[in-house]
Amino acid sequence: MAQPTVEFDRSLLGKDFPAGSFTITKEQVLAYCRIIGETNPLYLDEQEARRRGHPALLAPPLMCPLFARDLDRPQVKLNFGRMRMHAGQALESFHPIYAGDTITASVHLADVYTKTGRSGTMVFIVWETVFVNQQGERVAVSRDSHMVRE
Amino acid sequence: MVSPLSSWQGKLPLVTRGGIQAGAALGPLTKHVTQEQVQRYAEASGDHNPIHLDAEFAARTPYGRRVAHGMLTLAFVSELLMQAFGRAWAESGKLRVRFKGAVVPGQRVTVSGRVRRVQAGPEGTTVECAVSVHADDGSEVLAGEAWVTTR
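Above: the input entities. Below: the structure tokens describing the complete assembly.
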């Protein structure tokens, strides 16, 4: 079967874009934990977190990629597909993230590739986002892969 | 409501118990996913993809009905790793997963892991784990790996 021609803005590949910043508040950490049912005291009990040597509540590591959704990403301008699903996720943490941290993100389009299987053609779009805290420390890198199909 | 601390008792992280070995089991952790939770997750995350929220739209997709956000399912994996490794997970954890199937709200999912390898290095001991999430029909909806380095 011939691969369909998939067009997108190739000039985006590998180019870094500032994606804005966000502050993770204590209320957001508590609300996030409530929604997912997370019960670890390091996320929920500030006194306990301080007692164990942390300056504030720890934020669950996945809050960074979650908040990154609202940041500005350039348009891929893909001429394909209607349905989009999150296909894969990678995350590397380098430094703890605390409630009250202001995180600045930069994003780049890491890869776009096509796979054709029994159910038709799928296009995968992979974004990589680097998160830096207010002290200039790189706290995490997230790589998310989205599948687009007809 | 059960206090978070009372439900925590007795679950000491693997690392404080020492002696992590290949083959050690993480979890399992059982979570019940509801449409209300998916709704609230959509609001908190800003991910309003109709496949999670709009029953009519979702009926026309290959899934045939609304499904939970992959990141919500992944949050349960992070919860399991935090239980197993404590602060080391939040400070130095890495993971890589594939979303293999849909979690349909109303389902219970089982989150589990297994230590694959324990390796000493200059920065500490790195524990490599396989992680997975199964829906209650037995299908694997998420699979991947995680790494945690403890000093």
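Note for the figure: Strands of chain A lie at 17-23, 83-93, 102-117, 120-132, 138-149.
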